[in-house]
Specification:
Layout lengths: L7 E6 L4 H13 L4 E5 L10 H7 L3 H5 L2 E3 L2 H4 L5 E5 L10 E3 H14 L5 E5 L8 H5 L3 E4 L11 H19 L21 H17 L11 H10 L5 H20 L2
Helix pairs in contact: 1-2, 1-7, 5-7, 8-10
Length: about 260
């Protein structure tokens, strides 16, 4: 885990459904974070509930380490930049931005302040964050959604926020964004040499003649078009060998036909 990822916490205010807490833990871990904080959950032992454990699905460590506190102020005590995630427009309160902008601001804050801590704050499943909750945060952020139905499940909203934060932090730290295989490329996967490709094309032309598809007396533009087709596809060694086998089978079949 890179250092900026360890300075991000996700705060759920008064969560009432253990399943959402478990799903949140999973969402946090899949994006490379680990810190979950619960403010006054409806069930004091929410993280130990069977539904939470089931939906955490491999993120039981995040669930077990989740901090449970009595107030949002306590949860925000070490935080230097907090984003209140809400679906509703707020006429009064901190400046608003969308979640992608918020992720960019978080990345800049963490990069510029080695001791900085960023938090994403999410409200209750039923009513979201109160105005008093939002007053404790530095920014409001929204997830762009269907304006006619913008209410997301709290765990889904957390997943989207965690994804945006991961993308911003990974890009800022030049971390890979695509999965890579641990193995080494096989020789057959390497690009075929021009000599090998040209030998195949000669073989291919002979096979087309033998099966009657190509009339050597009137080739027209078939041969150069075929050559261009195969040349632009950067054939690998295995692909050339496969096609050479096809040519051999075509020639043998043509030789045995009545």
């Amino acid at each position: 885990m890179t250092q900026p990822f360890s300075r991000v916490r996700f705060i759920m205010v008064q969560p009432s459904h253990p399943g959402n807490v478990g799903s949140a833990a999973r969402a946090i871990k899949t994006m490379g974070f680990h810190e979950l904080c619960l403010v006054a959950p409806r069930l004091p032992d929410t993280t130990a509930q069977p539904e939470a454990l089931a939906l955490a699905s491999g993120a039981a460590d995040v669930l077990a380490q989740a901090q449970v506190v009595a107030t949002l102020a306590e949860a925000l005590a070490p935080v230097t930049l907090a984003f209140a995630l809400t679906a509703r427009p707020r006429l009064i309160g901190p400046p608003a931005c969308d979640i992608r902008v918020a992720a960019g601001l978080a990345q800049e804050h963490l990069a510029g302040h080695p001791q900085g801590v960023v938090a994403i704050v999410l409200g209750t499943e039923r009513s979201g964050l109160t105005n008093e909750d939002i007053e404790l945060c530095q920014r409001i952020c929204h997830i762009p959604a269907n304006p006619e139905y913008s209410s997301l499940n709290v765990a889904q909203a957390l997943q989207l926020a965690a994804w945006e934060l991961r993308y911003a932090l990974a890009t800022g730290a030049a971390l890979p964004l695509l999965p890579s295989t641990a193995g080494h490329p096989q020789a057959g996967d390497e690009p075929a040499s021009n000599e090998k490709v040209q030998a195949f094309l000669t073989h291919w032309e002979q096979a087309l003649v033998d099966v009657g598809f190509l009339d050597p007396r009137h080739p027209k533009k078939l041969v150069p078009r075929m050559r261009h087709l195969f040349s632009r596809n950067a054939l690998s060694n295995d692909e050339v060998d496969m096609l050479r086998g096809l040519c051999t089978a075509m020639i043998k079949t043509a030789a045995h036909k009545p």
